[in-house]
């Protein structure tokens, strides 16, 4: 009993550090003696997002320290950029960013912002409120998020090896996160802002499943594709791939890796 109390106190302390985006921790077969627990996800807080935007907008350092802007790709090829653990991008990679909504700190690749805004407005007209809780994240911010997640599991009693494996199933490594491309957004709804499986049952999640492809977005990490993507089910994570690819992917129930393999479509390589 004391052990459980300690775990709960640890989780409670962690929850004070950032808004709580709960993780539905899965029971892993190689952890038979370690009960599953819930820990908060470590995503950008509002303050982190504001600071990140200010840093991107006001960086006045030497020219060599500036982010390397993405080189133009053939039409639509840029939208098929594949980023995962096996296809990382460099630390310096940064797209041309644009604020998604006036007064909000979140930024995305400037080329997808119009479609993203149109999708959110269409949802609003259908009576569904979409809320972005994370968008572009730099390499360093992603590294910070992953480290914070590992530390949370360590404080809860997991070994370093266990903490690294579990955290990596929820949070991509630095360089392996789509958020650094500016093509991915995490979308919730004001009435349900917890990043767990329960979000999939909301009207917002259902609307996105049915309509996101019309605006070039796909559910990037479906429940049945974890073995391929390396990331467990994230019903809030949507990725821009362009309308044509999105329609095929969502209609056929594919993930991006499968689409690129089956169609032979060129995946932009900007590393």
UniProtKB/TrEMBL annotation:
<dbReference type="InterPro" id="IPR052179">
    <property type="entry name" value="DD-CPase-like"/>
</dbReference>
<dbReference type="InterPro" id="IPR003709">
    <property type="entry name" value="VanY-like_core_dom"/>
</dbReference>
<dbReference type="InterPro" id="IPR058193">
    <property type="entry name" value="VanY/YodJ_core_dom"/>
</dbReference>
<protein>
    <submittedName>
        <fullName>M15 family metallopeptidase</fullName>
    </submittedName>
</protein>
<feature type="region of interest" description="Disordered">
    <location>
        <begin position="53"/>
        <end position="73"/>
    </location>
</feature>
<dbReference type="Pfam" id="PF02557">
    <property type="entry name" value="VanY"/>
</dbReference>
<dbReference type="InterPro" id="IPR009045">
    <property type="entry name" value="Zn_M74/Hedgehog-like"/>
</dbReference>
<feature type="domain" description="D-alanyl-D-alanine carboxypeptidase-like core">
    <location>
        <begin position="109"/>
        <end position="242"/>
    </location>
</feature>
